[in-house]
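Subject: for your reference before the review

Hello V.,

The reviewers asked for a structural picture of the protein, and I figured it would be easier to keep everything in one thread rather than splitting it across files. Below is the amino acid sequence we used in the manuscript, unchanged from the supplementary table.
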Amino acid sequence: MDPARYAIGGLAPRLAVRPKDRGEVVEALRAASRDRLSVVPWGAGVALAAEPAPERYDLALDLTALDRIVEYDPEDLTLTAECGVTLATLRSTLAARRQELPLEGAGANATLGGVLAADASGPRRLRFGAPHDRILGARFVLADGTLARSGGKVVKNVAGYALHRLLCGSHGALAVLVEASLKLAPAPEVRLALVFDVAAEALSDATRWSWLPRLEPAFASVVSRSIVGDLAPGAGEAWVAVVGLEDDALRVAEQESAVVRALGAPRARLSGDEVRAAAQALADLEEHAPVRLSFTSAGNTPAALATLLGSLGGPLASKALLFHAPAGRLHVFPASGTAQEAIAAAATAGFTLRSLRGEAGVAGAAPRSGVQALRTRIRSALDPTGTFAHGERWVAGVL
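And here is what came back from the structure prediction:
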């Protein structure tokens, strides 16, 4: 393949290959290990292209040809697929049986392997679980070309060390996922999303949002108007809230009434496929800018942003924020050179830094020393020669 297509932070690899099956993945990694090449597994490349260039980058391993659905059992609500298959393909296959894999990766062409490697799930993470919650088992290739397997294809067969879950969130720094088995979910009877304009002072009113955890929505996200795009076009308040409801018709009607009582009439009411598109758009916003800080918080309503909003005149002046409230997941896109200030402001507001992308070397980005030591041991066991280019960044907690 043309190496220029696989540039990371402006750096293209020396070589790029596209294996047609897992046997060729094994061969490629054996050769890379033998020749001491630094490797990056590659799916759709949505997030990878925005990462800073790795110190060494010799080989891009394009997995998009591994795109088969290996086994689909609608009765057991399980599916096994190769990791180059796109989420769009899985959605169209499952829709025929009114089932779904409730995960959203960034971009229309996001691959299953990319979503698993990033442990990405978008705004519905709390309600339906992250990839590490839905994966039952996997086949993967280690740095030396060893083909391994962990877990099983159905819940009752899952036993032993859950290495397949460990690989979720490893960003291709430990092994190459080539096949995964996952738990599915029945499609809801009704999908509904309500879009609201929200003034900054309304976000700090804890009483206004106290109902949200009890309501158990499919998602409830707050996003800066400056980046909201087509979800809420035109002028309005500084913030936009999107509340998604997915359940049987009676429950959704009850939930909608509760939301409107608390927040008033929405600026827009979405239904059916529009709701799925809105959830995907919110997931896509997680890739809004190359510099991104991701945080977690015990606060699970928009009111958790109150203290943070007080610092918007400083490091967060761009007001580029995305908060998936029920899951307590905050993504901040600070102006260049202000990441450290943003980390300090978020810490004051009760948010814990989870990962940093785009500004290497920012103090405070690394995980606690004990976690970092554990990550070092894991990497040494699975990739002792340092074949995977993102290994050090995974250990340091900046992926």
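For the response letter, the relevant points are probably these. The CA atoms of residues 13 and 50 lie 15 Å apart. Residues 188-365 form a domain with the Vanillyl-alcohol Oxidase; Chain A, domain 3 fold (CATH 3.40.462.20).

Happy to draft the paragraph if you're swamped.

O.
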